[in-house]
Amino acid sequence: MAADLVIRGGTIVDGTGAAPYPADLAITGGLISAIGPGLPPGREEIDAAGRLVTPGFVDIHTHYDGQAVWDSHLAPSAIHGVTTAVMGNCGVGFAPVHPGEEMKLIELMEGVEDIPAPVLSQGLNFTWESFSEYMAVLDGKPRDIDICALVPHAAVRVYVMGERALNLEPANQGDIAAMRQIVAEAVQAGAFGFSTSRTISHKTLKGDHTPTLRAQEDELIGIAMGLKEVGAGFLEVVSDFNLPDAATEFAMLRRVAEACGRPMVFSLTARHDRTEVWKELLALSNQAAADGLRIRPVFPPRPIGILMGLLGSQNPFSGAPSYKAIAHLPVPERVAAMRDPAKKAAILADDRISGSNFPLITRLSFERMFPFGDPPDYVPHRETSVAAKAAREGRSPEDVAYDMLLENEGQGFLFCPLTNYADFTLDASEELLRHRNTIVGLSDGGAHVGFISDGSFPTFLLSYWGKQRGLPVEELIRRQTSDTAHAAGLPDRGTLKAGMRADINVIDYETLTLERPGMLYDLPAGGRRLMQRARGYDATIVAGQVTYRHGEATGALPGKLVRCSA
């Protein structure tokens, strides 16, 4: 019997880290049925001569919790080779929820992940209360990729504790028992684990901290023991590692992992204010791994940076009263107004900080603010910064940044790295890439729709670290296929071998490149989102069906909600 699809003449990069080799690959019934030379013809064929044939990418840190309800096409991840995404990270999400309390979760997601409340209010129908009911809604919609869901701590805490959770009060033993049961039942129903946030950066637009910020150790252990009881799922943690210090916070998280025996991942970035802490946390996680604990840091392959511009939701002057007066205007009219010398003088004279609703505004500096360019430059030279240009020209940085916003009729962006660029290099990411216990991720696909476009991380990993920096392509593929699949608990994908799920990318490695981000206005309520496309993906295949050809959707929607099993 002929195979459904044969990918012929490509170079197999199987996801294990093994050396690439030439072969054909056959797919039958959504699974890989054979790999080898000279396979018989299939009902359909893809000519992969000169192309890499890889497993589909598995991204374990995304935020499609809302988009997956209303959208069958989970871009940007789907257009960057991702075939499976884990969502529900950072402790935020939309279930469980008491009827009438939906806005509490919407406001938190709006502030933490920059998904506007009107978009979420219109896009979500909230026909669910429990997490299992939410998963049933997800289960009923076909998609272009598979999704896996984590149970968000903030939603669980608010569901159990109400206003006490929002007031950051400690949980009592009854609260902990109730949260533990909710999480255990959700994992039994198919959730992939539990996520929480301990960072002051996660706030609503009103400035309220995430309800999980001050959760005590007994609460975290109590909830984690629900995973132990079920015998499934992992824990995802975001922390500042501030109080009282990184080692003490890590030791507490280590005790949580020891108590429940379940895998734990945590976000690790090279901060600009505490430049050596990432090295300490890397050493601590490596020691934990050597001691037999499954605690792994997840790090970004490039700076996590904000794109500030008139097209997006933030720019350096968004908080200035004189700018707010024209912020509602279409970009062409806003550009015309801002070119008026009197308006420019007024905006530059305003206090742009106190009036801002952007919680990260104080972390931005003109020393690390750069013109983004086309093609986009994620590794800009220090001398190209706004501050450096201002010094050369004898102008204020604000004056230079203002003029840069107006270039190209207001269509451009300023790139503002927040982490992983303290010394104006990617040395931290390079070092982290050399440790087997680390995981590449933090793309935040589906989130920060107005000022961050990091869903393109998988493409950057290959196009920059592979093509420009010469790291072995087989290791870079392993990093975002078998490694991430194993970390998430997905044994049926991530490698190319007979019997595995046929999630596959066919990549023209020589032409693989990132395009400049643009703005789409296709979210519910006319909401906008940054979208960055790529060139070089000949085909992306999910469960044996071609979902994208040369970056364009085919209309096939074989993706589903994946349910965790013990």
Automatic annotation (TrEMBL):
A family per Pfam: Amidohydro_3
Transmembrane segments: none
Gene3D superfamilies: Metal-dependent hydrolases, Urease, subunit C, domain 1
Amidohydrolase domain location: 44-548
Name of this protein: Amidohydrolase family protein
Organism: Paeniroseomonas aquatica
